[in-house]
Design goal:
Three copies of one chain form a homotrimer.
Chain A (H helix, E strand, L loop, with lengths): L2 H5 L19 E16 L12 E16 L5 E13 L2 E2 L3 E2 L3 E6 L2 E6 L53 E8 L2 E9 L13 E11 L2 E10 L6 E9 L3 E10 L2 E12 L3 E10 L4 H5 L25 E13 L2 E9 L5 E10 L1
Antiparallel strand pairs in A: 1-2, 1-18, 2-3, 3-4, 3-5, 3-6, 6-7, 7-8, 8-9, 9-10, 10-11, 11-12, 12-13, 13-14, 14-15, 15-16, 16-17, 17-18
């Protein structure tokens, strides 16, 4: 997700103009990022079943490189990649770079190419009002997002922090409280599969905010199964407290979410949510589209775990305490609709 | 290639002396690089044949790290590596580092170790006078280089931006308009192959420029087939326009190139070229050295493409429009001697 | 090892406070590192036996990223990873990042998570007083360390520069001349091995220095064979010269080391050492614990080399000449207890 990166103040390295005639232009490289680490209790892990202790270290170190140049006419070009090291379930990895995103910006218009943000991903009112955009230290699986259903999570175009992304194109237009966003990606087809191996995704997102209120909607059309989806959200953000509602129709599977957040004292903030995912529409089942919820091969059914339906209610709570200087203590619990319990606590610091 | 990196103004991070006694010495890390992205029409791609659309995104993001230290006596040590993300034929990759090059510089003399530049690679008058050093956004295969023949491209020691390089050694000496360059690399032998698995390359390059004129020549001797080569070039660069001629004998295969470039108006520049590659010498064929040109396993015969002889004429045109601030619009067309057509357009920006 | 990194002066990028209320806090990213390259003569290599020339290029380029933030209360959070490119035995690699280490610091206390330093690794009086912490340009196998015996080298928790590390936790406490350090790591078990596949290591290190003298001791308890060990060391450092003694009991295998260093003139320094490794205790052999010294699969028995016992004496000498500006010339010879001879010479520069 982009949310975290965008919040950070960048480290600006002053540079001089590259070309003699470009007296007002500048080019630079900025480094920023965050570290987070803590303990993750996850009842899906068990030393005797999958060899992973139920309590493990979860951590991430992200260093983001933002590069840019500006033409004489004021058109800005930029590019971004990240080096990120991550440990989940006590399985650490060395840092790796992700795929690059390139952008052109002119006044309210931005066009991106490569590892794009994605229109659905960028929709306001879908991620939690927390530092991880989910619960706890690592997001705890992001069951809070109404687009995540049917053991098919993140089946929309989104900026990839650890991979190469979708190599798509997108355009964003901002005018006062309004943002419009369209995105498109196309996967290469293989010769064998010809017209089946590759697929494309097209998405649109519209949002408008006024005073303390906002609404948003997004739609994705995809050549792959289970990926056509419509999302809507609305919110109130009064500064000290906020409330939000979100709904998605995920190729026939409905999911609702209710969210609230409130400041407690000078430095801490509480976030609560509940979501409810409907069962697969009988028409879909009748049409032979199947039920992916218990498929052992789906993304959320990890080896060694008991893969269960994600139908039903998920609820969670997150408490954040601001330590100043870009650091905070974060802790959160959530009980997912597949009966998975996680509890996490740790620290988060930006640089 | 080094050309692009050397043109850029570096982002200098001021540092202080590392050792108390080294009052005039300094050490630093500099970050620079470029991004480029655009569309590539390539008639070698076809969704119905190799599963790749004939028009795809081509992009690269390069972030270069230049590190250096200077001794009390004025001898400079430096080192370089790059992190680079690239997408060709709609197949994006995450950024990876290449192999490191280490250098020692004292007055006009430089000695490098590791991922060396290479004497043949560094020869002036061989690459195009464009930002990519080839045609379009990604160089379009660099058919314009007279050392690239017989479907055996880049078979000389050269700095590798995406790999580890040849782990060689080289020395460069500059005195006024003269540059001399010798390089050497040796590949490890395997036990099985013993004296056959590994091979070495030795090369020398000499160049001299005076007023608006210059000449250069290079020679490589290699233990591997098709790699002994001699190159010569000569050029005139009058500022607003230039002309160049180059010739190479590539282990018996001759290739000629004619090149011209001219400024158009205040901000744009046009580059044109034509090359002509001779057939393999009959003596080589008689001697059983074979004809590599139609070998389906050679480097330029990618899977899914019709691999044809590179004998014959290649011509190309590139148009560049300077946007200021280190950014430019680039577009180019070339028709290669193997009947491959490419047309590319996009932007290029340095930082 | 951490030694080298800690010696370097960091490149500090000034940044501003991240959060408006954090008026005294700061967050930054610092880049530092070193390059070293030279020639390595190693009589274990032979073109006719293992296909590697006995004299090869040895090189390393390390770029370290240190990221940090400080809370309003003065608690500091930090994180580190490195991108490192290395060539040994003429086999170069592109730079890769290692695993991340996260830290929390408050006054004399530091707690680290992830790619930890390790209590045994951090014990003073165990590594040589050289820039590589070993002999020559690349340490020459670190036979000088009394913990390295039985062809089982570095079998303790230690910061990994090229890998992900042990994903452990550790605490360090410093008070005047005293440092105490405890570390712990636990490898995930696999389902098949259940209680056998994974193992844990716990270690403690204590050291105290006063005036020009110091002593240190460390102990590691491990679930893996050959890894229980106790180390002690004592040293005198008079500025112009120093002497040191170290001893370790490595799961029944004793090793002694004697070390001396002396300045010669204004810029050069000489380091000498001798170590003596005992044979495996007969009780161990009788108990069926076996003798790992001639096992062809152990870490130090590389393919293509004649793997011999490491029992016996190793001695070495290293000469360093300070060139100023963070650069030095380094050369060293050592004859290892397994009859392996290496001689190396080259340069080393920090940035």
């Amino acid at each position: 997700m982009e949310t975290e990166g965008n919040k950070m103040k960048k480290v600006l390295f002053a540079t001089t103009a590259l070309i003699a005639t470009a007296s007002v232009a500048a080019a630079d490289v900025r480094l920023s990022g965050y570290g987070r680490f803590g303990l993750d209790y996850n009842d899906a892990n068990d030393s005797n079943i999958n060899g992973v202790s139920d309590t493990t270290i979860t951590s991430r170190l992200r260093l983001q490189f933002d590069m840019s140049a500006e033409t004489d006419m004021g058109v800005a070009f930029d590019a971004r990649f990240r080096a990120q090291a991550e440990s989940r379930d006590n399985n650490p990895g060395g840092a790796v770079f992700n795929g690059a995103r390139f952008g052109v910006v002119w006044e309210g218009l931005r066009v991106n190419v490569g590892n794009i943000i994605g229109a659905v991903e960028n929709m306001p009112g879908t991620y939690l009002e927390t530092r991880t955009a989910g619960i706890g230290i690592d997001g705890a699986g992001f069951f809070s997002h109404v687009g995540n259903v049917n053991n098919e999570f993140f089946n929309w175009d989104a900026y990839s922090s650890a991979g190469v992304g979708v190599n798509g194109v997108e355009a964003l237009y901002t005018y006062e409280g309004f943002v419009g966003h369209i995105s498109y990606s196309d996967r290469n087809e293989t010769i064998a599969a010809n017209n089946n191996g590759g697929f494309d995704r097209a998405a649109i997102m519209l949002t408008y905010s006024w005073n303390d209120f906002g609404v948003a909607a997004a739609y994705q059309n995809s050549g792959a199964m289970w990926e056509d989806k419509t999302l809507v959200s609305g919110w109130y953000d009064g500064g000290n407290w906020g409330a939000r509602i979100a709904y998605a129709d995920n190729d026939g599977i409905s999911k609702w979410g209710l969210y609230g957040n409130i400041d407690i004292g000078a430095a801490s903030n509480l976030v609560l949510f509940v979501t409810s995912e409907d069962s697969v529409d009988q028409a879909d089942v009748n049409a032979g589209r199947g039920d992916n919820r218990v498929a052992s091969t789906s993304a959320s059914c990890a080896a060694g775990t008991t893969c269960t339906d994600t139908e039903g209610e998920t609820y969670g709570i997150n408490w954040s305490y601001d330590l100043g200087g870009g650091a905070s203590f974060e802790t959160g619990y959530r009980r997912a609709s597949n009966d998975n319990d996680t509890f996490q606590a740790g620290v988060y610091f930006s640089f």
